[in-house]
Structures are given as structure tokens and as C-alpha cells.
Amino acid sequence: MTFSLLVPTDFYQPADCALAYADTLAGAIGAQLVLLHVNRDSLLDPELLTGRINVQRPETIDLALASLARTLSVPVVAETGHGRVAAAVVEALARHQPALAVLGHRNTDAMADELVSTVPLDLLRTAPQPMLVVPVGTTAARVPRAAGHR
């Protein structure tokens, strides 16, 4: 199995920032990226009726994933999950067994409070997995290093 990093995307800025960061990190460690878009088409999704989510056509998703993959510097496996985000990510984690899940998050003053009710915490509850949450605006001009290493 190839060493990989899982990056969920909804095609918005926080996910794009996490993807750019993951691309830099994957290049430095010789990993591939698993790019996952979850089409939230489950009738059981509580946000489906709020208008906050947009169910997209499969052709549109495939085109957007292919467009993102072309911008990356490392090998990419792109796929679409269906239903609730956490459940689809858990399935992808089991299938690909990535070393790390890299998720984007918008910067807010209440970021810690928002994380309590978002996908990262749902994932930690259902499938404990090393995870990196990348705030929007974070740049990855170079690979992060542990303190004390040169």
C-alpha cells in the first residue's frame, strides 16, 4: 500500500488551503494524496433541508476533482464519497489507510469552540486517526520541522 495523506475537499477556500499544505508535505515525504469530496446526498443529513449544503452532479464533482488534481505536484487518487461527511471519511480511511488526514478550517475567534461540533471531532470520535487541521491562510512554502531539528 502506498504511503498517503487523506485530504477531504468541498472546493472552498479552507479545503484548498489544506490541500496546498498537504501537497507540500506529501512532496517532502514521498507520499501521494487521496483527495476526497463527499457529496452530501443523504436524506438523513440534518443540514440538507437548511439550504447550507449544495448537492452537486457527479459530472461537476469529477470535473472539479480533476481540475484540482492537475494543480498538485504529487500523485493523486481522487474519489467521491456519499452521505454524511464523517461516515464517508471513515470509509476512505479504512480503504486507503493514510498516515494522516489533513483538513481545512476557516479562522474564527471561536475556532476551538467550532471544532467541537465539526468534522474533525466527529472523526476522532468514530475513527481515531492522526489529523492535521490547517487554518485558512496557512501557507506551506516549506515543510514544517520539529523543534530542535535543522
Shape: globular
Number of domain units: 1
- Average pLDDT rating: 81
CATH superfamily: HUPs
Return the CATH architecture: 3-Layer(aba) Sandwich
Percentage of β-strand residues: 15-25%
Estimated helix fraction: 25-40%
Task: Give the CATH class.
Answer: Alpha Beta
Describe the secondary structure blueprint for this structure.
Blueprint: E1 4-9, H1 13-29, E2 32-39, H2 58-70, E3 76-82, H3 85-96, E4 100-105, H4 111-115, H5 119-126, E5 131-135
Parallel strand pairs: 1-2, 1-4, 2-3, 4-5
Helix pairs in contact: 3-5
Descriptive keywords:
alpha/beta, 150 residues, 5 strands, 5-stranded parallel β-sheet, 5 helices, Rossmann fold, globular
Please give a structural write-up.
With 150 residues, the protein is an alpha/beta fold. It has a single domain, classed as HUPs (Rossmann fold, 3-Layer(aba) Sandwich). Helix content is 37%, strand content 21%. Strand 1, helix 1 (13-29) and strand 2 (32-39) form a beta-alpha-beta unit. The longest helix is centred in the N-terminal third of the chain and has 17 residues, at 13-29. It is globular.
Structure, briefly:
This protein is of the alpha/beta class. Helix content is 37%, strand content 21%.
